[in-house]
What we know:
The chain is of the alpha/beta class. Helix content is 39%, strand content 20%.
Amino acid sequence: xxxxxxxxxxxxxxxxxxxHMLFARQTQQHLTYEAIELPENGxxxxxxxxxxxxxxxxxxxxxxxxxxxxYAYQLSPRAELAGAVNTLKKTDDGLILGDNTDGxxxxxxxxxxxxxxxGLRIAxxxxxGAARGVVGPLLEANPAHLMxxxxxxxxxxxxxxxxxxxxxxSACQLSELDDSFDLVINxxxxxxxxxxxxxxxxxxxxxxxxxxxxxxxxxxxxNRWAKExxxxxxxxxxxxxxxxxxxxxxxWRGLRPGTRQVIFELRRNLSC
Length: 272
């Protein structure tokens, strides 16, 4: 039976085993999927040992996405563009392929909630690893403009330089954001820590969509602030989590599972 896993540190909180076993049941695939914690400085040795022991593929999460990028023998175009890997696959010839499904997962979920992103003005909060993985796909969706807003402006400018050939993108500090955007995406780690992003009240207006890439069984701090400030609609990243997992599953198994029922089951599981 083929063996898969999610690799991270810490990892016990991960919902990936639940998601992938639902995918396997839905598609009648026989496989195992587990959560494995590796030492923070031991990714390369640990993952090599796991592949030697028969691991067919894995998802990679914090803090190892850059390690996985460096480890992979081959990279998909989207992983190379992002400079980070969240999915590894052992190919038929024994080589390790690295992919990044985060951006595809985000776009799939945004399409379910909002529809076409073409022509929208989008603000992306944060310039770290989470943001880096989605800038390319967001620009490929043909927005009118993508603004990368970050507390440290140099990091935002670095992303602008990396992705400027793909579309209209610029940078500003968080405090400079105004009400000219149609969609705001929180890619900072603030919600994970139970904190809010320090943002100007002027950002929020009655037609604004707000999306937090983190998820919770209740409103994330960012979404709570946005809703209380008068945003039109708010969404969390649970659908993104499931959609990026479906991309990984399709890479491994050659079958793309449906996500709607899995999102429903996961949301219900979170509420228990």
